[in-house]
Amino acid sequence: MPSPRAADRIWLADWRRRVSELYGHVRTEARADPERAWNAWRAERESLFRTHPQSPVPVAEREAFRARHWPYDPTLRFELGVQAAPEAAASPGSTGRLAATAPLAPIALPNSGDQELAFDRIGALVLPLPDGPALLSVYWMRGYTGGIFVPFRDVTSGNETYAAGRYLLDTAKGADLGGDPDAGTLIVDLNFAYHPSCAFDPRWACPLARPDDRIDVAVRAGERLR
Hints:
Layout: H1 4-30, H2 34-51, H3 59-62, E1 68-69, E2 77-81, H4 86-89, E3 106-108, E4 118-129, E5 132-141, E6 148-152, E7 166-170, E8 179-180, E9 185-189, E10 223-224
Antiparallel strand pairs: 1-10, 2-9, 3-4, 4-5, 5-6, 6-7, 8-9
Helix pairs in contact: 1-2
């Protein structure tokens, strides 16, 4: 039998494997039917949260846990070009797309725990929302496994959703809706917005959205707390 520490890590590896497999299914299914893919995502996430040993939900609350989401809105799914960050846009030869060679200063995002993770702001997404365009930063996690990270806050934060915001993408943890590397695009679907683990239990440490990673309207799509 593995030690308790080893068993915990093995279950954590299984959690990440299951999440990665889920998003792989979502990317395939969404090519034909994004809403069907979203329904599969909701059902599997709820199952994981209720039954998996690495669920962020406290053990005593897992059996009764039910995920809550707003209804699917097909107008909130986009394939967007990653625009150059302001630092990159000022670089010689910038074309408005992500400049891979542009020097970008590392950023320490807010964190719910004591840990401080460094990120690079590699670009930005402009979401064509019904109430007007909204700009969100696209980060790359330094160290760890690397990965694209897009957190955000909106007018629902602190009321219908977690005060510190939600995630759109976190590819280091498998939350990846796809895109076209040749075109420099990412698929962003606000219906797949979800809460970080620390929204369910403060024992989890999570990187969080900066104050300016904010959409100034209520994004009533994706996961909600109430």
